[in-house]
């Protein structure tokens, strides 16, 4: 007795493993008739006890050996319960259960009928967010594509800037796709002459915010001059002195340099006189105005008398820019003067603050280009003088741009500028090109908005931002080598033409320009144009003005603005 438990007698087998053959006693007699077989680790061992086995199965005879030859074969013996083991043996499926693509890891059986039948709200919400994110990425991809003209508005709303007459002869047609591959590097230019006078910039405007906005003033007594190349007395003098072979202005050069970004039609008059080439603009040309919402995908109203039409907004933008460039100056009479006074102002006239730089670039061994460039203000910090250009972006209706400047300028100024780069890519590129041509140290961009969306006469200055021209050019993907490559290719093409007058026209519906040979007296005051057939007649968007030199005042722009909405 060990702790009240009777172990019983254990017989000893001196001949090997297992119970002895002649074992006697109560404990061993119970197992005497049970067969015993040796086994190894690889052998299949039967169950010791199977309490679920049905022992009353009449169709089974446990005593039949089934033709077995060995006493150690227990496949037919039901003593260990192994009779049906092979027939019921199945491999275990070790593959993990399939997981749902979204949502938590549900535990469920492999039977499809036992899946939860409810729609998970979190899964659906994530699917919707994924679709929105994918759509947003697609939108950004199309907006940031280098080819801005890939998605255009309906070409039917655009009209040619000049009437193509039947007697004009088309000489060449150049698609914009060829301009993207051009590249040309020019050395630093030479300053031949500086004219005019500049007033100092008022740095208090750098601290403007939408909460302390300033009303845009009107400068009716200051004259602004938009003189074309051949009417410039300084360029005529330089041409007589054989200082160059090609002559132009910064507005004309910037139009050529940024031509691939343009959507609206424009035209440039080209005159070949002897071995010299002059790039001109017509009186009352579109180049005197500023495009608004040009590269946007949302169309503007087509009616010309609408205050938000393309023409009305161009006149309004020119009016805003002229007044803005004079309001942000320190008007105390202190000016920086240069070699010569303003060449276009008569004695006693008050000219706007502007300095003209006549600069010369070398295009080839025997080819030089002279251009008149402009800067509008000067700033002096630590006795270091820096020149700057002054331009203003204007907001006319937030429903067209999708961004409310009064709400976003103070906290998300980058988003406002990105929207303007999308809607006015050509205008901003031209301003940057003009600042680079003049070697201006800074660009000042003003953000001017209407007092009310339906009031296009009264405006407020919300903010002023400063940029360096080269840094801003890199930001808007404006390549200076490509800009000069476009100019060099057009100059080389025009130098092969015979003496005469030509016009370079941007197609209103396709990304390409055409060169026409026109009569020598074309675009003159006494030039009579032959009428086109009625189905081909297109009214020019610009109004003709009288006189060789174009002098534009704010009164003229206001009069045009009144006429456009009368």
UniProtKB/TrEMBL annotation:
Principal location listed in the UniProt entry: cytoplasm
Biased composition (Low complexity): 54-63
InterPro entries: eIF3d (IPR007783)
Signal sequence, start to end: none
Residue ranges of the region described as RNA gate: 286-300
Binding partners and assembly: Component of the eukaryotic translation initiation factor 3 (eIF-3) complex.
Entry protein name: Eukaryotic translation initiation factor 3 subunit D
